[in-house]
Amino acid sequence: MDNPVVLGVDFGGSKVAVAAADATGARLGGATLFVRPEDSAQQTFDRGIAAAHDLLADVAAGRPLVAVGACTFGIPRMDGIDLAPNIAGWDRLAFGDRLHLAFPGAEIAMATDVKAAARAELAHGALAGFDPGLYVNLGTGLAVAIVTQGAVLSGRHGAAGEIAYNLRRPGAPLQEPRLEEAVSGKALAAAAAELLDGGDVAALFELAETDPRVSRVCTEFLDELAYHLVNLTIAIDPARVVVGGGMVRSWHRLRPSLAAALAGAVPFPPELVLAEYPFDAPLVGALDLAVETYQVTRNPVVPSEGAPA
Fold it and tell me: Which helix (H) or strand (E) holds 153?
């Protein structure tokens, strides 16, 4: 097949990012669109697919699309998406089925966005050579990915690392808001909208130095995030903790509190670093997944003589 291309698509809580590459993974181009709060899940999905087709027409016209790697918040399946509350109706979207309809003839591979990000950081980013490792995503939502023995831990249901569902305190009622409702970019954006009359998260951290109300919100956020990160780090004993996601635009304000908590409370404090791909690791991972999928289908493993098929 001449000049095949692959596609990566990252459906995030606040944006959809797409990238096209040749069969070796060399990027040909990319595009990003922001999620509109008024759009339905189907409209958001359709806008992402349209952006992908426009990109292919622009940078790879006439070239065959052989594989698509797609990631999303939540756990993607053919007929739905588990643990995906950030866009109403996203859980009912037949994710895999609709990808097959959108890109007929292409191989489709799916992953949770944070696990795709960790794959990228493990393959050629800040987690390469560090085992075990921990990838922390501070974006619209909150989740981590655990790297062990050279792979990203999936878990029995694909839900390893979904700390958004952590209980926030001992003895908390099950109906109490989950951790992500208080510790996430979405939660801080709501606080910024209330306290700053429409300001963003970065502005919230900037103002924390001079405004006592804002300082209290940011301190409570960092204290609770550090509490859960310390406990998770003690459980895993990682060699390195890597942090990515939209909130790391304020990394210089996030890192000191997190580093101090790890140094003061963890018996063997790991290194704490910014991700190699701080804002687009899920997309990088999705594109890697597409390349790997194409390579596997092109060069399938043939069992050796006498080995079970």
Answer: none
Residue type, 179: L
Cis peptide before 132 (omega within 30 of 0): yes
Residue 116's φ and ψ, nearest 5 degrees, are -65, -40
Cα distance between residue 131 and residue 240, in whole Å: 8
Torsion of CA 175, 179, 181, 187, to 10 degrees: 160
Strands 107-112 and 81-82: unpaired
Token duo for residue 70: 């797609």
Token duo for residue 53: 């087709």
Helical ranges in the chain per DSSP H: 41-59, 95-102, 113-124, 185-195, 201-207, 212-236, 251-265, 281-298
Rounded alpha-carbon distances, angstroms, from residue 221 to 166, 184, 204, 227, 237: 15, 8, 12, 10, 24
User: Parallel, antiparallel, or unpaired for β 133-138 and 107-112?
Assistant: unpaired
Q: What's the pLDDT tens digit per position in 171-201?
A: 777 777 789 999 999 999 999 988 987 778 8
Instruction: Calculate the CA 234 to chain-centre distance.
Output: 23
Q: What is the pLDDT of residues 124-158, one digit of tens each?
A: 999 999 999 999 999 999 999 999 999 999 999 99
Burial class (CB in 10 A: 0-12, 13-18, 19+), 10: buried
Burial 129-141 (b: 16+ CB within 10 A, else e): ebebbbbbbbbbb
